[in-house]
Amino acid sequence: MRRRAVPWMLLLLAAAAAPAFAGPYYARGTYYAGSGGIWSCDAGNELFDDGLHGDGAAGDGVHGAFVTADQVPGGHGWKIATADWSESYPFNAMHPLANAILYLVNSGDVIHFRLDTNTLGGGWQPATNAVACDHIQPFPGVEFELIGSAPELGDWLAGVPVETREAGWFADVTIGAAGVYEYKFRVVGTWDYCNLGLHYNMFIGDNFSFETTSPLTKLRFEFNLIDGRARAAPVTEVIAEAASWGRLKALYK
Known about the structure:
Structural class: mainly beta
Helix content: 10-25%
Shape: globular
Distance between the termini: 56 Å
Radius of gyration: 20 Å
Number of strands: 16
Number of domains: 2
CATH topology of the largest domain: Immunoglobulin-like
CATH class of the largest domain: Mainly Beta
CATH architecture of the largest domain: Sandwich
């Protein structure tokens, strides 16, 4: 009995160590019909984790796709989802039918989609299953701003200008009082086109959040356009990690 038990133990250990199968995922929405209809899935809107679709390295848990739109210009809803809709992102449990938004300038635009199934620390939100799309600007030249619940972030009334660095935006802001706050990035002066939060750019998605434990805490607010994540971190920490932006951008050269 002892000799027969060993192979079964090895099989159990191997099964526990094997990663769960993920996907396949598709960039589904009203911008693309393909061989079926809008919101359908086929080979034309499938995401891959092979290092060839703007997804980083093969097998790294990041999925990407370049999809050719075939619908009329304008705003369109979309999600990244499995064929049976058992998984879909971005996903807001309070509003499961809400969708992210993209903007087509022309029918035939090639759109890049990205889903990162990895869990990322360092205060980045969302920690896992982060989505991004390179067609979130409603018109050329649009500018974005930081806005939030803290007085220094405008009390949700007036935004803070952001600077652009490589693959994203940032703004350094000193928060006067300790507390828990929320924030988003939006088109300057309006909520009508694109406001980016925990559920990417869903119009009814949740906000990013942060907490300060000391008065007069200087934070760097960052939004990463490549993976759709944001964070608010002490300036000293962010400056020490500035090279990470270059490493991430290098994945897409």
